[in-house]
Automatic annotation (TrEMBL), chain A:
InterPro entries: CO_DH_flav_C, CO_DH_flav_C_dom_sf, Diverse_Substr_Oxidored, FAD-bd_PCMH, FAD-bd_PCMH-like_sf, FAD-bd_PCMH_sub1, FAD-bd_PCMH_sub2, Mopterin_DH_FAD-bd. The keyword Flavoprotein applies. Residues 1-170 form the FAD-binding PCMH-type domain. Keywords: FAD, Flavoprotein, Oxidoreductase. SMART domains: CO_deh_flav_C (SM01092). PANTHER family: XANTHINE DEHYDROGENASE SUBUNIT C-RELATED. The lineage of its organism: Bacteria, Pseudomonadati, Pseudomonadota, Alphaproteobacteria, Hyphomicrobiales. One of its GO terms (molecular function) is oxidoreductase activity. PROSITE patterns: FAD_PCMH (PS51387). This is Carbon monoxide dehydrogenase.
From TrEMBL, chain B:
It comes from the Bacteria. It comes from Bradyrhizobium cajani. Pfam families: Ald_Xan_dh_C, MoCoBD_1, MoCoBD_2. Residues 21-141 form the Aldehyde oxidase/xanthine dehydrogenase a/b hammerhead domain. GO terms for molecular function: iron ion binding; oxidoreductase activity. Keywords: Molybdenum, Oxidoreductase. InterPro entries: Ald_Oxase/Xan_DH_a/b, Ald_Oxase/Xan_DH_a/b_sf, Ald_Oxase/xanthine_DH-like, AldOxase/xan_DH_MoCoBD1, AldOxase/xan_DH_MoCoBD2, AldOxase/xan_DH_Mopterin-bd_sf. Gene3D superfamilies: Aldehyde oxidase/xanthine dehydrogenase, a/b hammerhead (3.90.1170.50), Aldehyde oxidase/xanthine dehydrogenase, molybdopterin binding domain (3.30.365.10). This is Molybdopterin-dependent oxidoreductase.
């Protein structure tokens, strides 16, 4: 790890000020991606701005039609939340599948969504539920937030403060774990709302994406059998030493079926 | 006053008290006054010429003390890292043995090859300095696979090693095999890959070296399985340090599995550097660094053919293997795919003719050497896979074909056609035990239950025999060993009767401090807690060849047993004097020397006291003191064997293989501590399952980059991958070791890969699948099913 300055502001405006005034400075939420990167000397930020003193960024609230989760809420808290388990069980299940107990205790929803790792779990839940990303500047719909490999719509100095999830009729998440890392080789989040179904896929490509053909069919018939014959185009899907694109494409269909099953159970 | 805890008991492990309470003493825990930190600069290229190194910016960086390169090594006239085995081809031509410089000279040959060593006040400063080193490389094409490496036009690693072939090795009667093949009713053929593995001991490698100008002595603390061998190889052959001026200490070591049984260049560089900078130097590898520098294991490509008569009797076995050596010859490198492979191709069968040809090949990869099992898992895998292939092709039941060819218990000692003579064994007994324990007769019910869920269930068998307890020195010498393979032990009885044992093996997880104490407690009748085992320090322990090849109990335990016998013999002499009886009338039992047929006796403590306070003592004929030493060189290998049965379930939708049941019945000879043996079997099986289902070191052809260079990409087996295992022993006693022991450290790793893969193939056989290469990952299984002869119906 190379030396860096460390800031721990307690007000959001101070965070923004530090972020814009110190070039290449980095925010630390749970640090589950950033800290290993620093330890491997792959990143060399001059300053870290720790968000843990911003007290109002933690917690889960029920707003009726939506559930709002503060950006600094750890995965373990979401997974164990009676509220999330009751209102969006698929999302609680997703949080329980992230990393390992240590990662779930430190890692946060805001950090995961801002990092937008192509194999992370939360982006599938956020996009699959059509959530709204609430930032220090504005509100961004999930469909406009994830821009591909580690890229998001966040601007310089903009900080995620919360994620607001519409409560679906049913939702489920299924993940085929990469053998070594246990990141999603393919993870599929399926959510059924009164006005239709959303299907979001993580791990298969350079960023989370939706599957309109599946959404269309499932909106008419929310049953695994409805999508069994839908094949995903391998174009743009990832190939690596663990899985070639055609296998990932196949797994999207299998995991989507199982996610529907999970949503129904 | 504690109790005697003897052979066959299962006390909790003595050493665990300190490990579980965080009181272990590992190399990275050690701090020396004035210690500096070193960092190795490693090649980022698989194959490149070093055109120049500019050290100026690194040397100017804050805290940097020195930068050492291959030129400095050359200027100091230091030796090459030695290979401990020199094998030869069929005509007696010795293997090609290019130098292995401790820091690269002129060329790098694998990603991770060491180019420079940067020493600074702190690890951070050393890392920062290392990043400022400017190395000008001319990148050359790399070759990483053995098939590619021997092709005409392949990149050549060394000017004087044509086609990258180190040695074209043979074993067996080629003509007899050919003649048997001509008479065969059936010939089974199989091509397979034995995947490359990375050991991943929990503790990364580390070293500290210190030079004391006052005494002209060096001390090296290193994560080693064999400190005396490091002292010899490094002191005598690399750095020219006299043995009495070099102390090597291997304190607590967190796992080895072979990875730490080699003399590494890092050890030599650090020891040399400590004298140059006149301060202690410490280096601790990162996990990432371990991936590209810890010696790798396995990596074979093999073609095998088995000739059978019409009844399924094996007539002859022919195996041709290309074995990857990586970029240089490591300490045991060329011995592993040859001497520890070919002689095991007979397995537990009566195959009368066997021929094995192994081309040992250099590639632009990390040097390959012994990894738990070392050669025997590879041999077992080839044999047990092709037996299944033959059974399937001939329509003979897989258990029945094994029975028809097994060496009967009465036929031991059994001379194989490939050098080794098995002293004892009962393969049929192990097979019967495993069949019962695995509830094979009800497998059909379980298979049907899986099928009703859309899953394919399979059962796989593997029998095996291995050669361990390395090794009879004379035999090994004929095969090319450049050292002896005996072991030594000293039993020091203190005046108060407690015992300290100095032994040349090294305990890094095996439980030696417990097992060896049980042997002493049992034989001398002293309380278990009154026995301490000292190892891992060349200044405290007389000599030793270390721990590997399941040799510690077999060879080290035998030396200990003999030294203990000498203590008893001397004790009898002392007792005969004190009890005024003839020596032949003195009996020793349960910690007491007594005169036969009388009630006159002396306790062990009384005899020890008399030996050290020799007021009433036969000083004219006997020296005072009670300390004895023994060296033991085995007369033969030991041959543990057994039968493993794996049961798997395959999800055809995703290709996922789940290990459902695992049963092992092993013949390990006398069991000293059944709990420790069970732990060794569990651990060994897990590593074999890891090879079969998860682990794979993958290199990029052309660039030579290691693509599986972290725990994120190299899949280690985890607890939730495994079922509860049923392990049992079915032991016959070794006829030539003092206690009848055979060794148990590697059997699990040897028996399990074939059992698991045979189960996977069985699960998929109805689809026409006849072979699955390791690891049987979901991606690989799914792809096989896409190409399988029948459609997959599991929607």
């Amino acid at each position: 790890m190379k030396p860096f300055a460390y800031h721990q502001p307690d007000q959001i405006p101070d965070v923004a000020k530090l972020l814009t005034s110190i070039e290449d400075s980095k925010l630390v939420a749970g640090g589950m991606t950033l800290i290993p990167t620093l330890k491997q000397r792959l990143a060399n930020p001059p300053a870290l701005i720790d968000l843990s003193k911003l007290g109002n960024l933690k917690g889960i609230s029920d707003d009726g039609a939506t559930i709002t989760i503060g950006a600094m809420t750890p995965h373990a808290v979401v997974a164990a939340s009676k509220l999330v388990q009751a209102r969006i069980p698929g999302l609680a299940a997703l949080a329980s599948m992230i990393g390992d107990p240590a990662v779930r205790s430190r890692g946060t929803i805001g950090g995961s969504v801002a990092n937008n790792d192509p194999a992370a779990d939360y982006p599938a839940g956020v996009l699959g539920l059509g959530a709204t990303i609430v930032t220090s500047m504005r509100e961004i719909p999930a469909d406009k937030f994830f821009l591909g490999l580690f890229e998001t719509a966040l601007q310089q100095g903009e900080i995620i403060t919360a994620i607001r999830f519409p409560v679906p009729q049913k939702a489920g998440y299924t993940k085929f774990k990469a053998p070594a890392s246990r990141y999603a080789l393919v993870g599929v989040f399926v959510a059924k709302f009164a006005d239709g179904v959303r299907v979001a896929v993580t791990g298969a490509g350079p960023g989370v994406f939706r599957v309109p053909p599946m959404e269309a069919v499932l909106s008419d018939n929310f049953d695994p059998s409805a999508i069994a014959a839908i094949k995903i185009d391998t174009d743009g899907l990832t190939s690596d030493i663990h899985a070639e694109a055609d296998y990932r494409a196949h797994l999207v269909t299998v995991m989507a079926k199982r996610a529907v099953d999970a949503a129904l159970s | 006053m504690g109790n005697v805890i003897g052979i066959g008991a299962a006390p909790k492990r003595k050493e665990d008290q300190r490990f579980l309470t965080g009181r272990g003493n590992y190399v990275s825990d050690i701090k020396r006054p004035g210690m500096t930190a070193g960092v190795f600069v490693r090649s980022p290229h698989g194959h490149a010429v070093i055109r120049g190194i500019d050290e100026s910016a690194a040397l100017a960086a804050p805290g940097v003390i020195a930068v050492l390169t291959g030129d400095d090594v050359k200027a100091d006239g230091l030796g090459s890292l030695p290979c401990g085995w020199g094998i030869s081809d069929a005509k007696g031509v010795p293997m090609k043995e290019p130098p292995f410089p401790m820091l690269a000279q002129g060329k790098v040959r694998f990603v991770g090859d060491m180019v420079a060593f940067v020493i600074a006040e702190t690890p951070e400063q050393a890392n920062a300095g290392a990043e400022l080193l400017k190395i000008d490389y001319e990148v050359l094409p790399s070759v990483v696979g053995v098939l590619e490496a021997v092709r005409p036009g392949a990149p050549q690693l060394f000017d004087d090693v044509p086609n990258n072939i180190c040695c074209d090795w043979e074993l067996g009667d080629k003509a007899a095999v050919e003649s048997a093949f001509r008479k065969a009713a059936h010939v089974a053929k199989l091509s397979l890959v034995n995947n490359r593995l990375i050991g991943n001991p929990m503790e990364p490698r580390a070293a500290i070296a210190e030079y004391e100008p006052g005494t002209d002595r060096f001390t090296l603390w290193t994560t080693s399985q064999f400190p005396h061998v490091v002292r010899f190889l490094m002191g005598a052959l690399v750095l020219n340090i006299p043995q009495h001026k070099l102390r090597v200490v291997a304190p607590d070591v967190g796992g080895g599995f072979g990875v730490k049984q080699f003399h590494y260049g890092e050890e030599a560089v650090i020891t040399w550097a400590a004298k140059r900078v006149k301060r202690p130097v410490k280096w601790v590898a990162s996990r990432s660094e371990g991936y590209v520098s810890d010696r790798h294991g396995r990596d074979h490509v093999t073609e095998a053919e088995l000739a059978l008569d019409e009844t399924g009797k094996f007539l002859a076995f022919r195996v041709k293997t290309l074995a990857n050596m990586g970029g240089y010859l490591s300490t045991f490198g060329p011995n592993i795919p040859t001497n520890l492979y070919g002689p095991l191709l007979g397995g537990v069968y009566t195959t009368p003719a066997i021929y094995c040809n192994v081309k040992v090949v250099f590639t632009n990869t990390v040097p390959v050497d012994a990894y738990r099992g070392a050669g025997r898992p590879e041999a077992t895998f080839v044999l047990e896979r092709i037996v299944d292939v033959a059974a399937s092709e001939m329509g003979i039941d897989r258990v029945e074909i094994r029975r028809r060819n097994m060496i009967p218990k009465e036929a031991y000692p059994y001379q194989t056609p490939v050098l080794v003579q098995y002293d004892s064994g009962d393969p049929m007994g192990c097979l019967d035990g495993a069949l019962a324990a695995a509830d094979v007769k009800n497998f059909g019910v379980r298979k049907a239950a899986s099928a009703s869920k859309g899953k394919f269930r399979g059962l796989g068998y593997s029998t095996y025999v291995e050669a361990c307890g390395l090794a009879p020195s004379r035999f090994a010498g004929r095969l090319g060993a450049r050292g002896g393979l005996y072991e030594s032990a000293t039993v020091r009885v203190h005046p108060t009767g407690q015992v300290t044992v100095m032994i040349g093996t090294h305990n890094h997880g095996q439980g030696h401090e417990t097992t060896f104490a049980q042997i002493v407690s049992d034989k001398l009748g002293v309380p278990f807690e009154n026995v301490d085992i000292v190892f891992g320090d060349t200044d405290r322990v007389q000599f030793g060849m270390g721990t590997y090849g399941s040799r510690s109990l077999v060879v080290g335990g035998a030396a200990l047993s003999k030294a203990t016998d000498k203590v008893i013999a001397k004790g009898k002499k002392i007792a005969s004097h004190l009890l005024e009886a003839a020596e032949v009338d003195i009996q020793f039992e349960s910690g007491k020397f007594s005169v036969a047929g009388t009630d006159r006796s002396k306790t062990f403590e009384e005899i020890a006291g008399a030996a050290y306070v020799p007021h009433n003592y036969p000083l004219e004929v006997l020296e005072p003191g009670l300390e004895e030493q023994a060296y033991y060189d085995p007369v033969n290998f030991t041959y543990p064997g057994g039968c493993h049965i794996a049961e798997v379930e395959v999800d055809p939708e995703t290709g996922t293989v789940t290990l459902i049941n695992y049963t092992a019945v092993d013949d390990v000879g006398t069991v000293i501590n059944p709990m420790i043996v069970e732990g060794q079997l569990h651990g060994g099986i897990v590593q074999g399952v890891g090879q079969a289902l998860f682990e794979n070191a993958v290199y990029d052809e052309g660039s030579g980059q290691l693509l599986s260079g972290s725990l994120m990409d190299y899949c280690m087996p985890r607890a939730d991958h495994l079922p509860m295992m049923k392990v049992a022993t079915h032991s016959t006693l070794c006829t030539h070791t003092p206690m009848g022991v055979k060794g148990c450290g590697e059997v699990g790793t040897i028996g399990s890969p074939a059992a698991v893969i045979n189960a996977v193939v069985d699960a998929l056989s109805h689809l026409g699948v006849t072979h699955v290469d390791m690891p049987a990952t979901p991606n690989r299984i799914w792809r096989l099913l896409q190409n399988a002869s029948l459609p997959v119906a599991a929607e």
